Backbone:
């Protein structure tokens, strides 16, 4: 299934060769240890990585003996993942698809959707209420009953605490959706480029409701910024939150 091309696809296609230079990518081993401890699944279990990017988590999980399937909207990021898997000597199934449109023909033991690989990143055409709910529903459909989901989401409370009335007036912050909208300049293969960033933040009660609607039951919500995952209370000023949820046997 070939997804429609949007701003994030273009950005990540161009940014892919430089993605692993970001500081938040440097704690992959610690993050994978955390994932394994939470999932408590034996080697050989099949895990879905939604918004897998360069495959940094999938590759390391595959090293540990897990069967991995990664989904990403960016062919550039998937190409980096293929090269990384080849260097590591592991096999990963990689699928080019928009997470909102991805329909799996397999059932997975667990899923991860972390580091804003898909969740909370909207294009100009995406409905801010349906985009992320659609991702959660697709993940739920892909999981076996009682399958676990580890999800990270941008902390909307931080966005609120940093917002100003001027930002609301000039349209760079939407208080209804907790979405920030701003231009971001970056270096692409053809030189400097600009993307209009649309990033949604969430509050814990909203995440619980969305996950219930999508057929999950939420077990825990923690503070969970990439590179510093811990089992700790949500910090109002932390960038991300982590949700641990399970697919309900009969829905939520």
Residues:
């Amino acid at each position: 299934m070939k997804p429609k091309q949007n701003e994030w696809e273009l950005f990540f296609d161009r940014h892919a060769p430089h993605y692993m230079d970001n500081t938040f990518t440097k704690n992959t081993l610690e993050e994978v240890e955390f994932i394994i401890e939470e999932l408590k699944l034996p080697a050989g279990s099949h895990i879905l990585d939604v918004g897998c990017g360069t495959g940094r988590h999938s590759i390391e999980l595959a090293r540990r003996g897990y069967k991995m399937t990664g989904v990403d909207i960016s062919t550039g990021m998937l190409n980096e993942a293929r090269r990384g898997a080849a260097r590591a000597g592991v096999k990963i199934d990689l699928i080019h698809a928009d997470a909102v449109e991805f329909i799996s023909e397999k059932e997975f033991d667990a899923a991860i959707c972390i580091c804003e690989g898909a969740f909370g990143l909207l294009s100009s055409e995406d409905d801010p209420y349906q985009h992320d709910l659609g991702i959660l529903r697709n993940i739920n459909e892909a999981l076996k009953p009682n399958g676990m989901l580890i999800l990270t989401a941008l902390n909307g409370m931080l966005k609120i605490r940093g917002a100003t009335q001027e930002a609301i007036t000039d349209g760079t912050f939407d208080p209804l959706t907790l979405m920030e909208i701003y231009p971001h300049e970056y270096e692409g293969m053809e030189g400097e480029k600009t993307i209009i960033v649309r990033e949604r933040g969430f509050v814990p009660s909203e995440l619980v409701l969305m996950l219930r609607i999508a057929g999950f039951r939420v077990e825990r919500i923690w503070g969970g910024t990439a590179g510093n995952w811990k089992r700790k209370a949500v910090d109002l000023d932390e960038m991300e939150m982590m949700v641990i949820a399970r697919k309900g046997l009969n829905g939520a």
Summary: The chain has a mean pLDDT of 89.
